[in-house]
Design goal:
This protein is an alpha+beta fold and 666 residues long. Helices cover 26% and strands 28% of the residues. The protein has three domains: 130 residues, no CATH class; 346 residues, Rossmann fold; 89 residues, no CATH class.
């Protein structure tokens, strides 16, 4: 405590300092240092905190997106959480910006909690939503002078898959090469089945909070497609044989018909009878009755001659048969005028009945196709292009209807349509240089409704097809191996509430039931993928709008494991190339048919893209997508190679994520 003298001396000092300005600047600068340090230090530390918080937010968002991208169920698994933490740690390693660890609790000198650090990712309130939360502290620099040791930074994040209305048509190669094995076990087909499941698990069934509609359609293809049930159930008149009109129930096939032989016998005429009389004179009575009337040797005497004489008939006997004439003799009379006194000379008369058979039999042998004629016997087969009434065969696709009858040499055989179709009228002038679809190629018109014979589809009927390419006599089209194969039935767009087998929709059962068999025609797969997806064609009423009134994103996912494989001897959706000229001349080679169908495939890809649809291509068994496949996709980024099972599943999963549109919640 200062005394009076001290106070006086201090006052005097201050007064002298006030009067003397020398050296004041240094003192004032020293006094101003504290607020300056506070301003600068606060700016530095706040800037560091801002940068740290931005980085922390980025890490949180990355983790939430990664977890949602990895999710295949309504809730996160340990693997999903690990994926989130991996992305979080990569973007904000512990210790960044002198931050404290996320498992620490930071307290002040008095033991008060400053921050309970945390880094976690959990399920959100809505299914398939990820919520993240991160909190930590960073060490201050200059602000420590003023007693501020830590600054708290925090970030919250949430992600969801924002789908909207989506129609996805999967065009899937199920040809024979899909039976091939893959590294790690299983087949290519099994890998495809797993990939479709992964796709569904990510994109989901739809019907979220915004009422979005997600529908899936499937076109398994080989060298043919199976859409018969879809067309028949929609409108039987779209098919030849489904109209109920005789003229519209005909479809032509390279076929055969049985030829029968019939023998006809015609008889004319009958029995003609002539009666005459013969006499012998001077014959004794016994000789007349017993011999002459029976046409046997007869002894007699001539008038004026009493000696015995003999009459010998030739031939003798009664009756006499000669060729088709029968002569019967019988006694008529004996007597007459006496010619002498002894009374021995009289006349013997016999009746001669001559019966002649004038019957004429004519035999006529002819051939017929009608085996119901009495006496018809199978003779041979007649091989040629024939018209068949297909009404019974088409209607047999409904199991409540009877099977169709197919003629055989011994009667009939019962056939039931399995649903594969032959394409409608096309144009065989399309070559590799063709860039526009000709007007006559009705098969490449996505939206044309069938109204006549040219625009309708016919049933694919393997059992009536016969190849006669090198012989006038045909042989049956092979129905084993990869020839003349009808793939599994297609499915038009529909919503599925669950993927699991046993659900009301049973999607898994359908996918697991796919079989690999047949040759490869990408064009026929793309044609029907586009037809079933279109909102302007056959199913415009079903495809043009969604229940919530919003627009629909349309996608084709085209998966194949190989190049075009066409065989001239194979019966496919365009008939039999060795006799039918629907794609090229009948003498075209396999490679010519393949190149033409490859161009048709490209024309269909362009037509689909022109409608604003997105085409995704996954090519299995390659490390680089071929140009034919890449040119079909919406862009090079939409074409993905898959060299193994894991690549295939990843490709389908990535497509589902991109279709869905992964979003951060605000």
């Amino acid at each position: 405590m200062l005394g009076k003298n001290g106070v006086t001396s201090t006052t005097a000092l201050l007064q002298r300092l006030r009067k003397n300005n020398a050296g004041n600047t240094f003192a004032m600068a020293a006094a101003a240092m504290f607020p300056i340090v506070g301003l600068v230090g606060g700016g530095v530390d706040i800037g560091r905190a801002y940068m740290a918080k931005a980085r922390l937010q980025l890490a949180c968002d990355a983790g939430a997106l990664a977890a949602r991208r990895n999710m295949t169920q309504d809730t996160m698994t340990a693997a999903d959480i690990a994926e989130a933490n991996k992305y979080f740690s990569f973007n904000f390693p512990e210790g960044s910006f002198d931050s404290t660890d996320f498992d620490e609790t930071v307290v002040d000198s008095d033991g008060n909690v400053i921050s309970a650090n945390v880094s976690e990712f959990v399920d959100g309130a809505s299914p398939r939503t990820v919520v993240g939360n991160a909190r930590t502290t960073i060490q201050t620099t200059l602000m420590k002078i003023f007693g501020y040791q830590h600054m708290v930074i925090a970030a919250d994040c949430s992600s969801r898959l924002d789908v909207g209305n989506v129609d996805v048509m999967m065009v899937l190669d199920v040809t024979g090469s899909m039976r091939s094995g893959v590294s790690g076990g299983g087949t290519r087909l099994a890998a495809l089945q797993e990939s479709v499941e992964a796709f569904y698990d990510i994109l989901g069934p739809g019907g979220g909070s915004s009422g979005e509609q997600i529908r899936y359609g499937f076109v398994p293809y080989s060298s043919a497609v199976n859409v018969g049930s879809i067309l028949y159930n929609a409108n039987p008149a779209w098919l030849a044989g489904g109209t109920g009109t005789a003229g519209d129930d005909i479809w032509s096939y390279q076929s055969r018909r049985p030829v029968y032989e019939v023998t006809e016998t015609t008889t004319t005429g009958g029995i003609s009878t002539v009666v005459t009389y013969e006499t012998i004179q001077f014959t004794r009575g016994g000789q007349c009755r017993n011999n002459f009337s029976l046409n046997n040797a007869t002894r007699y005497r001539r008038e004026g001659d009493n000696s015995n004489r003999w009459w010998y008939p030739s031939p003798s006997g009664n009756p006499v048969v000669s060729g088709n004439t029968t002569i019967t003799y019988s006694h008529e009379s004996w007597g007459g005028d006496r010619k002498s006194d002894d009374g021995r000379y009289r006349t013997c008369v016999r009746e001669v009945s001559t019966e002649t058979d004038t019957t004429t039999t004519t035999t006529n042998v002819y051939e017929t196709y009608d085996g119901t004629i009495p006496g018809a016997v199978f003779k041979r087969w007649d091989y040629r292009k024939l018209q068949h009434d297909v009404s019974a065969y088409v209607n047999s696709i409904d199991p409540s209807n009877p099977a169709a009858q197919r003629p055989t040499e011994t009667g009939v055989q019962m056939d039931r349509w399995d649903g594969c179709i032959e394409e409608r009228t096309t144009d065989n002038t399309i070559v590799t240089a063709t860039t526009t679809i000709p007007a006559g190629a009705l098969d490449l018109d996505i939206d044309l409704l069938p109204t006549d014979a040219a625009s309708r589809w016919g049933p694919f009927w393997r059992d009536v097809m016969y190849d006669r390419s090198s012989s006038t006599n045909g042989w049956e089209i092979s129905k084993s191996g990869d020839s003349a194969i009808c793939p599994p039935a297609s499915r038009k767009l529909a919503s599925y509430t669950a993927y699991d087998e046993g659900s009301s929709d049973d999607l898994q059962s359908y996918i697991d039931g796919l079989q690999a068999q047949g040759f490869t025609n990408h064009a026929i797969g793309m044609i029907w993928g586009a037809r079933l997806l279109s909102d302007d064609g056959l199913f415009a009423a079903e495809n043009s709008s969604a229940p919530n009134g919003f627009s629909i994103g349309r996608h084709i996912v085209f998966m194949t494991d190989g190049s075009m494989t066409i065989r001239t001897s194979n019966y496919d959706s365009y008939g039999l190339a060795t006799q039918d000229d629907r794609i090229a001349a009948v003498n075209a080679s396999n490679s010519e048919l393949e190149s033409r169908q490859a161009q048709r495939f490209q024309l269909m890809c362009r037509a689909a893209r022109a409608k604003g649809w997105t085409i995704w291509v996954v090519q299995f068994g390659v490390t680089t997508v071929t140009s034919n496949m890449e040119n079909c996709a919406s862009s090079a980024d939409h074409a993905t190679p898959a060299s193994n099972r894991a690549d295939m599943i990843s490709a389908f999963s990535n497509i589902a994520q991109k279709i869905g549109g992964l979003r951060l919640d605000e």
